[in-house]
Amino acid sequence: MDARWPRRALLGAAAGAVVGTAAWALTRRTGPEADGFADTIPSVPVGDERVETRRSAARGRDVTFYTAVPEGHGDGRGLPVCLVLHGASATAADFPGFGLGRFLTDAVQWGAAPFALAGATGDRLSWQPSGSDDPQRMVHEEIPEWCAQRGFDTTRLGAWGWSMGGYGSLLLAEAYPGFLRAVAAFSPAVRSGDPVFGGVDRLHGTPVGLWCGTDDGFVDDVRSLAGKLPEPARIASFQPGGHTRRYWNSVTREAFSFLAAQLHPEV
Predict the structure, then answer these.
(1) Listed residue (111, 196, 104) closest to 158, CA to CA
(2) Are the beta carbons of 231 and 18 closer than 8 angstroms?
(3) Kind and range of the H or E run holding 102
(4) Taking a C-beta distance cutoff of 8 angstroms, is the pair 107, 60 a contact?
(5) Between the chain's N and C termini, which has fewer beta carbons within 10 Å?
């Protein structure tokens, strides 16, 4: 479905439940994470993919923590990390069902240098503090620590997110200049005058890739954001598509190749 999703609606969207089967099958849901995209997931092996529960002091609760390593790269020790920030209608428990581990293997098979994915559930707070609940601090402080415990290389970090998570990835880079080597944002839920626009100059020195479908309700604002970046976006892609996982899946290989190049500048 290519329905337009204004940011207010996204932030109020209900997160779908996940069936706890070995296949991590998604339950039927509405919104941009709706089912019907299985045919867009690459038919390649999944590497070391894990879903765990971690205690987040920043959020004051237990959270689902997801990691994936491309097939053929063992447990991922020594690999750089792309932090994954989900959209409003998803959680980290959904990531296996979204095929993120397969997309990672697919990108490497197509020539991208390997890296790991890591993300945790931030709920529907736009990846900003809400009282004592601070998902942005969890991403900045705790997820890198959890990744280091796994042996990943947390001196090389990027971020990728879609919709609310695209907004959150850009906001994270602005809040901590130099923390990320690159940001890839799919259909970021930005609006002119919001905090991302307000802090856009702080993206100086951070390579940014932007992707948004031309049938997406955010496309005009994403185009505007691209024009206000302190340096031209490394990629600014506006192709047919809506605010849907089907569209996001169609550009994931390109985004992962972009991120890999920034995480492995020596290649």
Answers:
(1) 104
(2) no
(3) helix 100-109
(4) no
(5) C
